[in-house]
Amino acid sequence: MLLEIRNLTKTYRAPDGGDAVDVLRGVDLQMAAGETLSIVGPSGSGKSTVLNVIGALDQADAGEVLVDGRDIEKLNKNELAAYRSTTVGFIFQLHHLLPQCTILENVLVPTLAVPKPQREAARGRAEELLEAVGLKHRLNHRPGELSGGERQRVAVARSLINEPKLLLADEPTGALDRVNAAKLVDLLVELNRTRKVTLIMVTHAPELAERMARVLELVDGKLIAQA
């Protein structure tokens, strides 16, 4: 298994001393390499929290998250930084591109944290990824010169630049219209097919969720298969 989650729990405590909110109440999940999965559920149900814990952007209160056999909760600071930059890739609802940088430079930003020998091979890989997302002709453009759908495709290329095994997409189509949302999911499905990257997508859109091989719903803090 590439990813195994066991009995994950997470509680958010109110800063004013009010009632705590149990967001995750024993989440279990297994994914093999190359699988695709969508997680659905109402706003505030904890979908993004699951991704954030898998991606080591947040920490669970209890439970285990094993990626490639390693319990990420036990990684030290340097190991966590390496995990975030090379094992997982992130796509968020907002693209978070640097407006002053070209598209090519934006895609290369995550490589600044990897060893120099790996950085030297990155430019060619960035150009290859931008070609894969249909933007090789826009290498020297800046984000302000691109459409919303194009900017999100740049974010996809950026998420793959360090060749992650696991791609985490948190409402990646939330800022796009229906047509561009469908195109972006087409792209993610194609990248999963051609590059074998394991994909977890959080979405509110049932028609997009169904493009993944499995659909799980977060209900009362647990992941269950949709009826």
Report what the structure shows:
The protein is globular. The strands form two sheets. The chain has a six-stranded mixed sheet, sandwiched between helices. Strands 2-1-4-5 form a four-stranded antiparallel sheet, with helices on one face. By secondary structure, the chain is of the alpha/beta class. The protein has a single domain, classed as P-loop containing nucleotide triphosphate hydrolases (Rossmann fold, 3-Layer(aba) Sandwich). The protein starts with a strand and ends with a strand. 33% of the residues lie in helices and 26% in strands.
Give a nutshell description of this structure.
The protein has 227 residues and is of the alpha/beta class. Helix content is 33%, strand content 26%. It is globular, with a radius of gyration of 18 Å.
Topology overview:
Blueprint lengths: L2 E10 L8 E11 L4 E5 L6 H8 L7 E6 L2 E2 L5 H11 E4 L11 H6 L7 H5 L1 H11 L15 H13 L5 E5 L7 H18 L2 E5 L3 H4 L4 E6 L2 E4 L2
Parallel strand pairs: 3-8, 3-9, 6-7, 7-8
Antiparallel strand pairs: 1-2, 1-4, 4-5, 9-10
Strand proportion, as a percent range, falls in: 25-35%
Any idea what the radius of gyration is?
18 Å
Q: Classify the secondary structure makeup into a structural class.
A: alpha/beta
CATH architecture: 3-Layer(aba) Sandwich
- Unreliable segments of 5+ consecutive residues: none
Overall geometry comes to globular
- Kindly state the percentage of residues in helix: 25-40%
Count the DSSP helices: 8
CATH topology-level fold name: Rossmann fold
